[in-house]
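Worked Example 4.2. Consider the chain below.
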Amino acid sequence: MASRIRWPRRNDSASIRARQERLGLEGTVVEQDLEPYAKATEALTGVAPVPVAVVGPLELELGEYELEEPDGALVERSRSQDSVYVPLANTEGGLSISLARGARAASESGGFRTFVLRDRITRASAFLFANAAESAAFATWIANQPAEMSAWLESGPVEGLSRHAKLREVETHVVGPMCHVLYAYTTGDAVGMNMITRNSYALNQAFVPEHAPVKPKRAYLEGNMGGDKKISHRYFEGGGHGKTVIAECTLTEDAIQRVLKTSIDELLDLTFVGTHGAVASGMQSVAFTPATAIAAMFIATGQDVGMVGTSSMAHGTALRVDAGLNVSIRLPSLEVATIGGGTTLPYARSWLALMGCEGPGKVYRFAQIVAAATLSLEISASAAMATAGSENFYKAHFERGGLR
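Applying the procedure from the previous section yields the following structure tokens:
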């Protein structure tokens, strides 16, 4: 058996070049200045350029929000009108033009209204005991400790704690000898999973052993009730793993006929069929294609693409009203950031800046824009599917679908 070749581990220019040469990648698109990406990943070898379309404008009325101390309640301070162009990093033919069509129909109907309802991010730890009596006693104790644990974290008793992650609530779920403990935090303008991981680990390994009246046999940082990078009924219904955001607009009959080439009745029939199809399949969403728009915006703005699964859980509605058709989408667990992680890369900062979302104090604005863009695509794709035989949807994919 051939001996294993030692792989260069650092991200200096010599190591990057060595990896490229060993893989036969010299002279390809990966050869460019990679210094801005050196801290973004391990074993950096190249980049994968993705075309970015910019569509819009999205006309929207959005809220300005802040967390009110000491309990971290989300408070809307004001509302304002804005006009925003959005970047979409994608290789899917028809996505950009479809989203633009939905945005136009909404714009000609008065625009979107967006709201942020909740802001929490969770780490779901778990503790294993010898029996249910011990786990229940532990649950009773730890459920009453949020203020003490928060103060303990603020005092910085161990190294590496995050001062930006603030513990807000603790919830428990006992199953036999297991006690699942959901720590709920706010993390400012970052998604904050690294922050809350550090703080939750410290609570599990230092605070609990010192203060708990009954000691667990084992402590697990994550017991898989947290919905991280997965769909979850718990967070579909109640939010709690990111921002809970709603976007809505009332489409006029004229815009539906002229821009979307369909009718209110056709859209409502599709809603009836699609909702029951979702229920019949056990789908953890009632929506058409939310992941498409969310993934495109995530890639453009340096978000964690692994969080598209959680973030694209969605619940859409359609209701006939006097002014036309009120449509909305609820994203219960939208995990977005305007600081930290991939948002620090030059391309991401540029696209965030385009939307007025770069840096601190912008995450609620960004979340609302993502929701409005997602609803734009839902509107247009639904209209294409709603026409007789879904002919418009078929034509869009036939004409822009690439190889046949």
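The first helix runs from residue 13 to 22. The CA atoms of residues 152 and 207 lie 8 Å apart. Compare this with Example 4.1 before moving on.
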